[in-house]
Amino acid sequence: MLLRSFRTVELLRRISTSSSVSGYRTSPSVLQRYNGVLPHRVTTESLFPSHSSRFCYSLSVNSQNENQHTTLSAPVSSRRVNNRKISRRRKAGKSPSISPAADAVDLALDSVVKIFTVSTSPSYFLPWQNKSQRESMGSGFVISGRKIITNAHVVADHSFVLVRKHGSSIKHRAEVQAVGHECDLAILVVDSEVFWEGMNSLELGDIPFLQEAVAVVGYPQGGDNISVTKGVVSRVEPTQYVHGATQLMAIQIDAAINPGNSGGPAIMGNKVAGVAFQNLSGAENIGYIIPTPVIKHFINGVEECGKYIGFCSMGVSCQPMENGELRSGFQMSSEMTGVLVSKINPLSDAHKILKKDDVILAFDGVPIANDGSVPFRNRERITFDHLVSMKKPDETALVKVLREGKEHEFSITLRPLQPLVPVHQFDQLPSYYIFAGFVFVPLTQPYLHEYGEDWYNTSPRTLCQRALKDLPKKAGQQLVIVSQVLMDDINTGYERLAELQVNKVNGLEVDNLRHLCQLIENCNTEKLRIDLDDESRVIVLNYQSAKIATSLILKRHRIASAISSDLLVEQNPETELASCSAV
């Protein structure tokens, strides 16, 4: 059995808090490097210190003995619910107390399924080939519309998916209808009518209150039959989602969530309170479930747009204003609270409206505290990023701003924003282009992860810093690098020019890998010049000789094509969002 630990997520998450303002970026540094900058995206990492370095997937990976017993068994918590608090909530018209765990079992028997996944991940150092095939197992449950909800990491990079319902020995083929890697959720569909006989759907409920009991149902390692663990809600706050490297609302519970539990429901009463998705490595009985607002946002987005689009971001980086002199310096009265705008993503709508040193006082009429939090339920608080992330693409928000001592109200359109360097690239093959033995690829964090678990320290420093801090200046922009040089007479003397960024081709700035490919393929001069690493290194080639050498190099290294298949198809980077907006 394998429990995949992601210790570097926290390391990467912290570095970017002081500079990242778009997309779903993580960063590695210590909080001392944070310098008071509060990034506003879908995440607010600085407000909620994360232990994501110890977060683990709850995904069970096949070994030779599937039922091998380990110390990762699932103990049932004996902690009791505070009945007085629950009683007061019931009198106040709030959430009722939960039924016994036996009721959860009754509900789950005809709803929770075991998922078997065969997956193959690509190699980013050798982007024309895949790594070894692997098998893993997870859980899922049926919702209305003959759909199965599970975790995205259960089916990531899948090539074949099977599901098996409780009490059956037959596995049925399943198709992945939609995947949201940021929120770690996926929807499966099964065509077999036999599978659906006797299956019941579960209904999504509300966010449970603190100390309310939940029962986690699934197929964790240690056995083949369905398992139920019981626990109570410990806290509700934005948490690092390890798989998608994002920070969204999550519920911490003290029920054991072990490998194989991923995708299973956490049931409260007769409804689903969340989806189990990760635990805290090194801690006993600390698990996390995805709350129903995130689940509903994902499902509704898929139903409206036909595919997963993402979670919205305002595209600004904000600094808390807890210091009195800081508030006074920006002409805030004693009654005012808010956060200071320090950076704005050039691709966001906010870039056209907001200015650096604006103070955001309220979001959609909800006052923002000096630490960036807003009221949430009964005497709880949560970062205002949560309000942003729950917006639909192209939905507007009313933002109250203090600018040079005067209050203004602006309407800002929100949409998902992609970082300059992608944080993940599941379910797709890497892009590449080979010319004269130079392997050109777009810089991605999965590429940096190939340097090992301690990739932040072992990967090229310049590339790592650019991946964490640089912002896109225009849509579709990529950082293109020379990942390696396949040696040949044509490139002798250039072998040390790997791991450098490509800036220009024949004097023209490179926008992305597709653009670089076009510039080289359409070259009409005898010499081809490529400027690297802020133009500090130069490659000059005889163009015709380089084209001939390329064919020989591909044959020598048994590479089928000099160009990845995605670059052969014309694409519009705004097509997906536009198609959703038109719905």
Automatic annotation (TrEMBL):
Region spans: Disordered: 67-99
InterPro entries in the cross-refs: DEGP_PDZ, PDZ
Biased composition (Basic residues): 81-93
Domain of life: Eukaryota
UniProt xrefs under PROSITE patterns: PDZ
Organism annotation: Arabidopsis suecica (Swedish thale-cress)
Taxonomic lineage: Eukaryota, Viridiplantae, Streptophyta, Embryophyta, Tracheophyta
Membrane spanning stretches: none
Domain PDZ per the UniProt entry, residue ranges: 315-370
Molecular function terms, GO-annotated: serine-type endopeptidase activity
Classification via PANTHER family: PROTEASE DO-LIKE 10, MITOCHONDRIAL-RELATED, PTHR45980
Full protein name: Peptidase S1 PA clan
Pfam families reported for this sequence: PDZ_2 (PF13180), PDZ_3 (PF17815), Trypsin_2 (PF13365)
